[in-house]
């Protein structure tokens, strides 16, 4: 039977408000079969993230200042302390390069590096709690939306640059994309990333499309009700808007219409009995997955119609048809995502994971004062070695090298060598200083 199965499958990862001991469930998007579950405390809304190429799942605890992380193939969470300064409202993890975790706590942004657990930077530009965070596919930029209605685009490089400067000014957004008149409920980005566009939804009955190259608004889609969620296909040719009344609208962006305000007049498809809080589209764009406050997760077929023009009567030529209900009876859906992975990754007993998640530092006052925790890998038992790269001292170096390499009885020789080096350095300094003073006197 295994030979007939597809090597890659679209898995649907769901968390609910009243999920019980298993706070996250994973389903096969094609058959609706539950493949796996993860044990832990209930996950906070808008915080479920994938780390690396399917290595870990991460989510924040609801009403607690802690994060949870699970190896993708294990039922139990990692036994590490991921403590943050407060209750998490939103979270995102970069998918490429060095893995960075962006956390929204109240109105502040906290940037952590997962490899070391180090706090990279803090920014405070929103004046009300942050509601959504999303990374570009390249991992170099991320967008934030808040209850104040503002949508910002941030450069990760600006946080890293400020880290190496004392008395550096507060990091500012790369673009101020716009402001809704009510809170931002969701953000979605095309696969083109910084060369594509970003879509924001709000309870002010609008969804806005922004060009990330210029930072300018492209379309302001006006609907008849509050927009609670948004998703777009890989190419960005279709938008899916979820509403407070449980309906979903489909908006075609091809052929590209003139920029400006667009009235979405047609009634959407009734998908849920309560508000649609989560939307996700498969990579192929042929399936839409919806999650609502009624506790159900449904898979829909996306049936494309003719190429209508946005704003005309043909705006909803495309429609959706229900395939199956995969999840129900666990309370309102809080997180929903689609991950394309191998079936064996979820079922194997052992998996070689190269990604590392280190315990988060508890010093949130100054990022430069935070010690760096360097994971040490070797033939022996894996452990974490804490190394302060900013306030480096020879004594700390000798002690930690002895521990990590299993050296015993050689501390005296090492200390003697360091003392000789310190003496030689002192003599060189005095010699150089004396010659500089003599040259000044000659002048």
What report would you give on this structure?
The protein is 13% helix and 40% strand. By secondary structure, the chain is mostly beta strands. The chain has a five-stranded mixed sheet, with no helix packed on it.
Give average pLDDT, whole number. Answer: 83
User: How many helices?
Assistant: 4
Shape: globular
In this structure, how is the largest beta sheet organized? Answer: 5 strands, mixed
Instruction: Give the neighbour order of strands across the main sheet.
Output: 15-16-17-18-22
Residues in β-strands, percent: 35-45%
What is the number of beta strands? 30
N-end to C-end Cα span: 90 Å
Unreliable stretches (pLDDT < 50, length at least 5) are 311-316, 377-408
Q: Rg to the nearest angstrom?
A: 26 Å
Helix/strand structural class: mainly beta
* Fraction in helix: 10-25%
Summary keywords:
mainly beta, 4 helices, 30 strands, 443 residues, four-stranded antiparallel beta sheet, single chain, five-stranded mixed beta sheet
Secondary structure: elements and pairs:
Blueprint: E1 8-16, E2 22-28, E3 34-39, E4 49-51, E5 56-60, E6 67-71, E7 90-93, E8 100-105, E9 108-113, E10 118-123, E11 130-135, E12 141-146, E13 150-155, H1 156-163, E14 175-179, E15 184-189, E16 197-202, E17 206-211, E18 217-222, E19 227-232, E20 238-243, E21 247-252, E22 260-263, E23 269-270, E24 276-281, E25 287-292, E26 297-303, E27 319-327, E28 333-342, H2 343-347, E29 372-376, E30 383-387, H3 394-405, H4 411-442
Parallel strand pairs: 18-22
Antiparallel strand pairs: 1-2, 1-28, 2-3, 4-5, 5-6, 7-8, 8-9, 9-10, 11-12, 12-13, 13-14, 15-16, 16-17, 17-18, 19-20, 20-21, 21-23, 24-25, 25-26, 26-27, 29-30
Helix pairs in contact: 3-4
């Amino acid at each position: 039977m295994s030979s007939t199965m597809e090597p890659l499958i679209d898995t649907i990862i769901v968390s609910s408000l009243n999920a019980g001991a298993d706070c996250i469930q994973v389903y096969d998007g094609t058959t609706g079969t539950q493949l796996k579950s993860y044990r832990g405390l209930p996950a906070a809304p808008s915080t479920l993230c994938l780390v690396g190429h399917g290595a870990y799942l991460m989510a924040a605890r609801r009403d607690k200042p802690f994060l949870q992380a699970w190896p993708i193939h294990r039922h139990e969470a990692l036994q590490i302390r991921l403590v943050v300064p407060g209750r998490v409202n939103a979270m995102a993890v970069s998918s490429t390069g060095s893995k960075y975790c962006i956390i929204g706590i109240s109105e502040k942004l906290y940037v952590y590096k997962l490899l070391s657990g180090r706090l990279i930077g803090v920014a405070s530009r929103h004046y009300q709690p942050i509601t959504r965070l999303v990374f570009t596919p390249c991992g170099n930029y991320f967008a934030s939306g808040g209850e104040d209605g503002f949508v910002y685009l941030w450069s990760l490089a600006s946080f890293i640059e400020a880290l190496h400067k004392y008395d550096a000014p507060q990091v500012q957004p790369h673009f101020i994309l716009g402001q809704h008149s009510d809170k931002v409920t969701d953000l979605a980005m095309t696969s083109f990333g910084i060369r594509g566009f970003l879509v924001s939804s709000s309870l002010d009955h609008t969804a806005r499309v922004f060009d990330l190259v210029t930072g300018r608004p492209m379309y302001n889609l006006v609907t008849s009700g509050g927009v609670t969620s948004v998703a777009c296909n890989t190419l960005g040719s279709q938008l899916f808007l979820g509403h407070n009344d449980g309906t979903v609208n489909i908006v075609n962006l091809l052929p590209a219409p003139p920029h400006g305000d667009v009235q979405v007049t047609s009634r959407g498809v009734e998908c849920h009995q309560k508000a649609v809080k989560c939307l996700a589209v498969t990579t192929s764009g042929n399936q839409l997955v919806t999650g609502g406050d009624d506790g159900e997760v449904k898979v829909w077929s996306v049936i494309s119609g003719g190429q209508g023009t946005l704003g005309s009567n043909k705006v909803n030529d495309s429609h959706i048809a229900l395939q199956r209900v995969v999840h129900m009876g666990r309370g309102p859906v809080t997180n929903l995502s689609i991950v394309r992975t191998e079936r064996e990754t979820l079922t194997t007993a052992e998996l070689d994971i190269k990604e590392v998640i280190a315990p988060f530092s508890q010093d949130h006052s100054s990022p430069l004062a935070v010690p760096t925790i360097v994971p040490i890998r070797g033939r022996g038992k894996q452990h974490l070695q804490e190394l302060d790269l900013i306030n480096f001292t020879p004594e700390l170096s000798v002690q930690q090298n002895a521990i990590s390499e299993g050296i015993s009885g050689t501390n005296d020789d090492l200390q003697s060598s360091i003392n000789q080096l310190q003496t030689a350095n002192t003599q060189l300094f005095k010699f150089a200083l004396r010659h500089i003073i003599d040259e000044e006197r000659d002048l």
